[in-house]
Every structure is written in C-alpha cells, then in structure tokens.
Write the structure tokens for this entry.
Amino acid sequence: MQDLMKQSPFGAYLEHLNKGELAYQVADDGKAVFFPRAVAPGTGSSNLQWRVSKGLGTVYATTVVYAKDQPPLNVALIDLDEGFRMMSRVEDIDPMQVKIGMRVKFRVHPGDEKQPPYPVFTPAGGDT
Amino acid sequence: MSGLKRGSIAVVGAAESDLGQVAPHTSPVDLMAQATMRALDDCGLKLSDIDGVFSAATQVRTAPMTLAEYLRIKPRFFDGTAIGGSSFMAHVSHTQAAIEHGLCEVALIAYGSTQRSVSRAAASPRERNPYEDPYRPFMPTSAYALAASRHMHQYGTTREQLAEVAVAARQWALLNPKAWEKEPLTIEQVLNARMVSYPFTVRDCCLVVDGGGAIILTSAARAKSLRKKPAYVLGVGESLSHATISNMPDLTVTAAAESGPNAFGMAKLKPADVDMISLYDAFTITPILFLEDLGFCPKGEGGHFVSGGAIAPGGKYAVNTSGGGLSYCHPGMYGLLVMIEAIRQVRGECGTRQVKDCEVALAHGNGGVLSSQCTVIFGSESTL
C-alpha cells in the first residue's frame, strides 16, 4: 500500500520523471494501471507494483488547440505498448501532421518553476 | 431492470428563466427563482406546495440549500447530485424514486448560470489534473475534439457531416423566438469559422449564454388535476463511464449505450417509437454519438444519419427542435433545457416547430467530457 503519509502516487510518478522515466503501475492481474493510484481500480487491492515504461506508443486520438496569440498546440491521447493510455503532446512535428496510428516515443519535458517535468512524445517513425 | 414504475410521475410545469445576457450582478439563483415561479405559474401550484428540491450549478456549490433559502421554502427532501450537464436527468430519476416512496410529493428541479456575464472560466473553474493540465487542452472542447478525431478515423465521419448538425440546429432555432441565434448558417460558414480545437470551429461548439430553467414534477394521480397536459416520465436511465477524457474506455462509444436501453426498457418502448429526440449538443459530434448509442442508427453511421438535412426542419427526424445548445441557448449545464423542449413537444406547445402528433419525446443529457449519460423518456397521456 502506498503510504500516503510518506508519498503520494503522483509524488512517486514525479520522482521517476525526474530520473527521465515514465512510470506506471501494474495490478494483481498483470494489467497496467494509469493514472497512478493508492489502490487498484476495480479490486481495491493495495498491491500495486511500479514499473518503468519502455516509452513507445501509438497515437489513439489527436486534436490541435488554437489559443489566442499562441502557436497551434497538439494534444493527443497515447496508447503505451504496456497497455495504458495517457494524455500528452507530440512534438518535433507540425501539430496538424500528428495522425492516429502514428508510432511515438517518450521524452521528458523539463517544465519550469511553476510546472513540474512532464512526459511528451516525438515521432518514432512508422505507424500501426 | 429499473425498480421505478413507468408513468408514476409527470412533469406538470416547465419554464426557462430569462436567457441570453442578463443585467449585471444578476445571480444564478435569481434566474433559478424566476424560472421556478414561471414553472409554478405554468401548472397552477404554489411555492408552498414544493416539498422536494433538486438542483446543481457550477456557481452555487450547495444549490438545493441556497435555492431553498432564497425561496424561503423548507423541503423535506433534497438532492444536489452534480455530474455536469446531465445532472437534471438524474434528478428526474431521483425525483421519481422519492415520489414513489413518499419522500416528497411536489418536486422542483432548477438550474441557473450567468456564465456569459461573468465568463465561462469564472463560472466553471476547472479542477486541477496533473496528468492533463501540462498539455493545455482547451477544456471541455478539446476532449470532444479528441472523440471526434477518433470517430472520423474509425468511421470516416467528415467535418461536413459535423457541420450538418450545426446547420440543422440553426434552422430549428430560426423557428424558436427564444433562440439566441437569429441568422441562417451554412455548412461553408461552419467549416470556415475560427478554428478552436481541430476539427471544431467555433460553430461546432455550443453557445455561452446566461440562463436557467425549472420544472415541477408530481405523482401521475395529482398531475391529472393541474392546469396543463402532463408529460409523464415513462423511462429513465443513468450511467457513468469516466471523469477525464484520458480515461474514457472507447472514445467512440458513450455510456448512453447503457442509459438509453435502460430508459427504453423501463418505458417498454424502442427508438422507432420516439416522435422527437432532444439531445445534449455541446459540440457537433455529440448528437452523432448519441443517435448511435441510443439506438437510432448503427454505430459509425451517425455522420451519414444526420446528412442531407435529415435532422433539420422538414427532415426525416425531429432532433433538437429548440435549436439546441448550438443555436438556442447553452447556459453551462444545459440538460434541464434539453428536457424542457421535449416536455413542450409532448404537450404540443411548440408553435411553428411543433412535431405533429408528438406522443413520445426522448431527452438525453451529457455531463463532463462524455462522462455521465442520463436519458429520460416523456410521454403524453395516450402512451400510458
């Protein structure tokens, strides 16, 4: 059981990100759990193991946000190969060219003084 | 299988508050109270008859309590279930349970918002989410845009088909004197409008206006003696599938696929029996998803279903005859107004946009980011 007096699920996730790692949890049935939790969804089991993802995934859905006075920004849902989905952004490519099915790989965005580091993705070449 | 009884309660009074842009410093509860008195006037009941209060509003955290204070009424039953725009369909279901079990006899469901006056950001501050916030999605729009991207990818749905939904809503709105939008709209205008979150332009997105509404419900027995034709509650269904878009299991299938069949099961009806369909059109993709999930067309065919003016006035299906959240009004959590149009159609009060022989109307509410889905089926006396 995550001892919430010592560390939060997000705190543990962030600790991995600070080491350049994308972490997720695995439940008793071997299935990936994301977002990180204090107890396993569906069962309530306290047995959640932390794992580090290989960082490879596929774009599941994508949009481009057009905010006032800002360059267009990609927002995507990524299906990681380990079997979990997360929101992220695909960088190093025109946001409109991010396509569903595109293979992508993880890297850490360093964030800034207000925003802790967070995962982003770049094209990995090829699609599914 | 619902434990509730088909047709045991009815809506007897229904009204909007003032809609559009209200005077400075008007509060959301001012609008709730105004709509409440109009709904009471609609049915001939008095404030002191109300013994159940159901309400939710993003600007009023303890809505049933705040509204009861304002009206100086002392309900013996209250419920503030807040699951976004479908909250009020859930309130109808909970009202039915409460009335059937004698917990209250005359229920008020009310809503109000001043989101146009105070800004959407001020009216609906978003909860922080460290797994989504860093990507700066424009919420809730981007969540629905992600769902649209998936539907387009999987089923070949086009931006033109999405635009058909907005154009049909506008044509209905031109028949509704209370609608915010007064000018015609073309598919080209939708496609060429300012892009907000691809594939949505601003014309694929619902309005941001002030407003509210109220409905009064009571037992079927008491409803018969009141001023207007009752709109009986034939079936209800409530379902949730997620809270955040990152956690929606399949972006092309909503929990309406559960709430719909539950409501139809209780009503002992099928989609073909529905004369008018009132769907929460927060964005142009939502009616397409709900028409599929509620069983009006097979999964993936929603884009085709709405094409060629099929859901516009004179089309094959009467959908969102008020003009919807896209063109009539959208004061934040719009679900109560989705029901008010369905109720008016069943009563035959809709003037030039009235659906002929409308005996059964379905109202479907959506909350969060396709998260909560609640369905209510209303019927006239002939359906009992």
In short: Chain B touches chain A at residues 130-132, 134-138, 142, 145-147, 149-150, 153, 194-199, 245-247, 251 (CB under 8 Å).
